[in-house]
């Protein structure tokens, strides 16, 4: 492995760690005195404050286009409202299975519906594996609790919004910088007036007791999870390719899930372990290009052999 490839995999692993930490930090915000509306405000106010000067002075583009607004409504506002609501009531270990697991499922299904995209068998096998793992988790929760919680359904809704956002990025050829800047600035511009005027909030109550939570969410949500992760992700894709980067994402449910068991002292139920393993395998199949490339080279070799056969007269 040369130095460039090593740097690519290090960047990919860094993105995976930040994404795994996002699950944990979001759950910390969910069980803190902060409301989900507070965490969303902190996330986008911080990110917009960091991104706005860069957009204005260095890499400006026409921001308020319909495609950027629509993407921000789904990938920014819709995703945040549903996902962070889910983090309030769903254990961190289950969140680590649901959100990273359902996102590739939603992207694959929605890409077929919206972009009429065709996928190889490996992706559909991955979807089946993820669905099976999540079904085990859902069935256990239904039998033990009597019904699925609002948190589970909210996380599923968040994954759906992110799936639409991802498919539209591909359909409209939106660059990573355009996605980052529009998500931060447009979402902040739309959300903050509504939050300040009408939504419930706890930030103003006992501010001295909440500074630790506010600083943690500001640094992680507004800086690491939105800006640094995007830079690492793009760098990794440039060096090792999107397929290898996608395959690395299969580690997120395991890293975040196992970490949540220790950080939040959650029980390691059999259903959770089965779901965690099954979903991780499914995410790998949903992202890998190994079988696609193998089929491609096999067909290419077969075609080459046929083309060299002697022509019978």
Describe the structure.
With 313 residues, the protein is mainly alpha-helical. The protein has one domain. The protein is 82% helix and 0% strand. It is built from 12 helices and no strands. It is globular and about 45 Å long. The mean pLDDT is 88.
Keywords:
313 residues, single chain, 0% strand, mainly alpha, 82% helix
Mean pLDDT: 88
How many separate structural domains? 1
The span between the termini is 51 Å
Which ranges are low-confidence, i.e. pLDDT below 50, for 5 or more consecutive residues? none
**Strand-residue proportion:** under 5%
Say how many strands there are.
0
SSE blueprint and pairings:
Elements: H1 3-31, H2 36-57, H3 66-89, H4 92-115, H5 121-145, H6 150-171, H7 176-197, H8 207-240, H9 242-248, H10 252-263, H11 270-287, H12 290-307
Condensed summary:
The protein has helices spanning 3-31, 36-57, 66-89, 92-115, 121-145, 150-171, 176-197, 207-240, 242-248, 252-263, 270-287, 290-307.
